[in-house]
Amino acid sequence: MINDYYIYIMTNRKNGVLYTGVTNNLRRRVQEYKEKIKRGTFTSKYNLDQLVYFEIYNDPENAIIREKQIKGGSRQDKINLIEKDNSEWKDLSDDF
After folding, report:
1. How far is CA 89 from CA 61, 67, 86, in A?
2. Which residues form the GIY-YIG domain (predicted)?
3. Residue 79 lies in a domain
4. Are 13 and 2 within 8 A, CB to CB?
5. How many Cβ atoms from other residues are within 10 Å of residue 71's Cβ?
6. What's the whole-model pTM score?
7. What is the CATH number of the domain that holds 69?
8. Within a 10 A sphere around the Cβ of 75, how many other Cβ atoms?
């Protein structure tokens, strides 16, 4: 887990608002969203507290490139990514 970088997608419900981000500490970041630590942010405004997708990278540059690729894709591209491995849109942070 040390030196890992994560691309992730958060949502508020199945087929709801989607947010894509990158972090080096996925557990902490998801907890911040769930506890709404940073008020007034996009994630707190839309109550994005469910982790529905993530990828792990060893290199921060590759993680950022991938984040931009996902963000640049269509909403349907993001839904396809999520549903490929998480068809029920389960909150993956429950497994932490």
Report:
1. 28, 20, 5
2. 3-81
3. yes
4. no
5. 15
6. 0.91
7. 3.40.1440
8. 9
